[in-house]
Write a structure and sequence with these properties.
Blueprint: E1 2-8, H1 16-24, E2 29-36, E3 43-52, H2 53-63, E4 67-68, E5 71-72, E6 74-77
Antiparallel strand pairs: 1-3, 1-6, 2-3, 4-5
């Protein structure tokens, strides 16, 4: 089973590959994506990482509130749009 993690306050230059590399140190990453503005194509400063269920809590504890590319990132379990 997989869980999706929200990653916020990312540097604008962050790529999906950067997220995969950072999160892979704490478990298996199934996919990652950076959310971009539809009109400009620029990063919106957040993204999502899909990970194995059993690795999710370890990744949240290890990476939430840590420095990534010069910024302090937020990592938590993603919520469905209708839950926000």
């Amino acid at each position: 089973m997989a869980r999706t993690l929200y990653v916020g306050n990312l540097p604008w230059a962050t790529r999906a590959e950067d997220l995969t590399e950072a999160f892979s140190a704490y478990g298996e990453v199934l996919s990652s994506r950076i959310i971009t503005d539809r009109q400009t194509g620029r990063s919106r400063g957040f993204g999502f990482v899909e990970v194995r269920d059993e690795d999710a809590e370890t990744m949240i504890r290890a990476l939430n509130g840590t420095e990534f590319g010069g910024r302090i990132i937020t990592v938590n379990e993603a919520r469905a749009r209708n839950e926000r």
